[in-house]
């Protein structure tokens, strides 16, 4: 009996460091595949034993979360996004494998997808002294597109609060094409431009079904103003956009 107890104790002592080696603290590059397509973001995790907290960061802003758990090599956490004026919880579960994580994504119980992450290794801060180079003409600080072509930072004002998004547009004559992106992915957009008047149409795929959206606005320099968004089943909302700096 004593030998059996001693053997079990030895196994636990050997196994303990193995479990302790699972660590998720640090920076990660995340890809989430939703019904609307793939979206990427950066994630920073902090760990205290099996308790994990962190923040997901993308061009829309930051989404902090707490209460995440790490059981062995199984990570689970939930963060909430504002989608079409409604708070949508997104729960990610995944298996940690050294520098990668792979798992499933649940979108408020209404849709499912997959997600993955890879650890972002810290770059070495110390670098060899730079060799002085001959002066070269300074490049312009920003490259500005003309008309409505280019990338835009969009803000849609919904009954549930402001909803940030992005739009990347290109113009061929009077025809406009491109993509409209949010925290839930990207959808194609088409439309027309007549002088300073812009009209766009798209179909947003949401957990509650497809929504037809028509956007109109006026071009005012590097801004889109007087924006109106007609969303099927939700009425009319206001929106605006500013040209994204490159």
Can you put this structure into words, describing what you see?
- This protein has 246 residues and is mainly β.
- It folds into two domains: 20-119, Quinohemoprotein amine dehydrogenase alpha subunit, domain 2 (Lipocalin); 150-243, Quinohemoprotein amine dehydrogenase alpha subunit, domain 2 (Lipocalin).
- It has one helix and 16 strands.
- The protein has an eight-stranded antiparallel beta barrel with strand order 1-2-3-4-5-6-7-8.
- Strand 7 (100-107) and strand 8 (112-119) form a beta hairpin.
- Mean pLDDT is 78; it is low at 1-21 and 123-145.
The largest sheet is: 8 strands, antiparallel, barrel
The fourth-level CATH homologous superfamily of the largest domain is Quinohemoprotein amine dehydrogenase alpha subunit, domain 2
Under the CATH scheme, the architecture of the largest domain is Beta Barrel
Helix-strand makeup class: mainly beta
H and E string: HEEEEEEEEEEEEEEEE
Give the rounded overall mean pLDDT: 78
The name CATH uses for the topology of the largest domain is: Lipocalin
The total beta strand count reads 16
Summed up, the helix count is: 1
Q: What is the CA-based Rg, rounded?
A: 24 Å
Distance between the termini: 72 Å
Given as residue ranges, the uncertain stretches (5+ residues, pLDDT < 50) are: 1-21, 123-145
> Shape from CA axes?
elongated
Task: Give the helix proportion (percent range).
Answer: under 10%
Strand order, largest beta sheet: 1-2-3-4-5-6-7-8
């Amino acid at each position: 009996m004593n030998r059996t107890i001693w053997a079990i104790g030895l196994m636990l002592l050997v196994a303990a460091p193995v479990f302790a080696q699972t660590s998720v603290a640090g920076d990660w590059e995340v890809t989430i595949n939703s019904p609307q397509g793939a979206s990427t973001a950066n994630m920073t995790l902090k760990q205290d034993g099996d308790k994990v907290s962190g923040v997901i960061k993308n061009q829309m802003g930051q989404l902090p979360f707490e209460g995440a758990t790490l059981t062995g090599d199984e990570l689970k956490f939930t963060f909430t996004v504002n989608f079409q004026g409604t708070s949508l919880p997104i729960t990610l579960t995944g298996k940690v494998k050294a520098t990668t994580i792979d798992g499933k994504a649940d979108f408020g119980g209404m849709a499912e997808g997959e997600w993955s992450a890879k650890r972002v290794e810290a770059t070495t801060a110390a670098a060899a002294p730079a060799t002085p180079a001959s002066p070269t003409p300074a490049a312009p600080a920003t490259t500005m597109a003309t008309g409505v072509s280019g990338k835009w930072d969009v803000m849609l004002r919904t009954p549930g609060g402001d909803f940030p998004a992005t739009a990347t547009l290109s113009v061929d004559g009077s025809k406009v094409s491109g993509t409209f992106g949010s925290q839930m992915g990207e959808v194609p957009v088409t439309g027309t431009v007549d002088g300073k008047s812009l009209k766009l149409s798209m179909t947003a795929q949401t957990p509650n079904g497809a929504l037809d959206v028509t956007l109109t606005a006026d071009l005012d320099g590097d801004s889109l103003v007087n924006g109106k968004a007609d969303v099927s089943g939700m009425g009319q909302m206001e929106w605006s956009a500013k040209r994204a700096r490159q």
